[in-house]
Amino acid sequence: MSTPTTLRLAAAVLATAALSGCAGSQEDDVGRVAGAFEDPAAAPADRCALLAPSTLETLESDESAPCVDVIGQVPLPGGAVAAVEVWGGDAQVRLGGDTVFLTETPTGWRVTAAACEPRGELPYDCQVEGP
Amino acid sequence: MTAPRYGSIRANALSLAFGGLFLVTLVGQAIAGTADHNARQVANGLPTVSLLDYVTSSSFGVDVMENWQSEYLQFFLYVFATVWLVQRGSSESKEPGKEGTESDREQQVGPHADGESPTWARTGGWRTALFSRSLGLLMGVLFLLTWAASSVAGWAAYNSEQLGQRQDPVSWVGYLGEADFWNRSFQNWQSEMLAVGSMAIFAVYLRQRGSPESKPVGAAHADTGQTG
User: Fold this and answer.
1) Which segment of the chain is annotated as a signal peptide (chain A) (predicted)?
2) Is B179 on the interface with A (CB under 8 A)?
3) Helix axis angle, B179-205 relative to B134-164, nearest 10°?
4) ipTM greater than 0.85, yes or no?
């Protein structure tokens, strides 16, 4: 095998490994944020800090109350992370008892929707969601 | 008439000009695309992205690839269709009666090749057979590669949109059955077929003085295959 071919193969393997590493790391981050948000022991302030700004704004506007006062009333069954899908700046995490949607922000992954029920071809019906 | 002695830039002016225009317009698409994407992000209360983030995104990828694949499909079909189909009076067509791959003498292959013919036109066998179809084959291969790339980038962009709308993502095979994939493909294909078909017929009745894409201005409408 010629040296240029070997180099090209090595570059391809490294690129694949790097991309796989990125994807794996992103999935870990997304799963960690979703798990922390749905953790039954999480403090309301910690949960609210994990909401995407537009979702936080919508929740407080709809409830006419600060997030920390109302987030506890939302049923968040949580559970173990069963599956993570990351596509571009959007993600979905299936937990044992809930499905959570997230978006990537400059400060990390944040929850855009939670307490979601599937509705077939229609969008999930979520009790917490942004605009 | 002896060809003038041009430097390499002037001798390749057409390729260089379009290569440059391609780069300029690709940059234009990247800038306008970033602005458009960020306008929608702001409207949805989501963070904006940088130019680098956008040009490495599936959204930009599918927008580029869906156009490339249709251009290569157009040339692939046109190169092969013009072997067998004629348009009387069009500079885009050969003379009626010359349909087909023509004789070795007309095509200057094998024993009919001259000293300046490419080596693979002279050698015969599979090399000449392959070289004789290399232009159309390359266009066909580029079409398949860019269409495949378009399907992968489109799949990623579609799934990102699905998640943004709180819907489940789909598999790649599932995406090939989605209306989004076929809508993107057909909307590009139809425009290419329109452009090629209209060029073939407009070239019968209209002229562009000095352009090899046109007949000479004084050529009859019925004259076929002339360029001026």
Assistant:
1) 1-25
2) no
3) 140
4) no
